[in-house]
Amino acid sequence: MPAMTRAQLLQALRRRQFLPFLQAIVGTDGQWLGAEILMRWQHPQAGMLPPGSFLQRLEEEGLLAAATRQMLRQLSIAWKRAQVRLLQPFFLSFNACGQQLHDDTLVAQCQALLQDLQEGQLRLMIEMPERGGDLGPVHCRRLFAQCEHADIAIALDDFGVGDARLHQLACGRISCLKLDRSFVAAMHGNSMYSRLIEKIVALAAVFGASVTAEGVETLAQWQGLRRIGVRRFQGYYFARPMALPDFFARLNHVRRPVGGHATQASTMKPVSERGCCRDD
């Protein structure tokens, strides 16, 4: 792994080396409903680096928010260049780090991105990590109210494995609970996990939220999750994270219910990358 000094990270920012990839989020029939924006580092010597190898260093140096903003700007440029046109509602989500969540300009930045994209069918979702979000109830209520006023959705990421700041559920409208991949991986070896996921689905329903299961890698996982009420899914079973041109090229072909795609997807290898803006 290459060295990652502050000077090298700053140089990477100046050279716009932090790139957006997109991974599809699908419905019960495999239809693409949205996508999560994931970060890569196009390192000049080491090649394309996964998020788990550099995100912690960015956060330690206070540069993760800047890298995320750069990633979103590059997404906007590529989206317009590709002339993407959506025929039905679609959402893009991204993981906001603690620095961004404490920044009063976060919602304004999201609004500016949507205005720049000029796509009426598109909605943004901010993913708040249970670990690292550390927002008190007062700040949390203010952020949620700003998001609701701007029609920007909120998701609680890593749900169930962080610090369980359940007060967030009472601070405003939550659109989604993102079920951590560890629950999905464990459910077929331990029936108690299936019961636990059922309870999380029921909890989400109380607050008018959906549940997205991360890290879905097999047909059995998908079928089991559907049986217990999960309605959104993300993982290698459906699609790997893709560079923007590849994602845009496939978008129009897979937003309808899929036929043979699931069989093809089921042969993909499991994912192991972790971290904010990570892969699932």
Automatic annotation (TrEMBL):
One Pfam family this sequence matches: EAL
Signal peptide coordinates: none
GO MF term (any one): cyclic-guanylate-specific phosphodiesterase activity
Domain EAL: 2-255
Name assigned to this protein: EAL domain-containing protein
Annotated organism of origin: Herbaspirillum frisingense GSF30
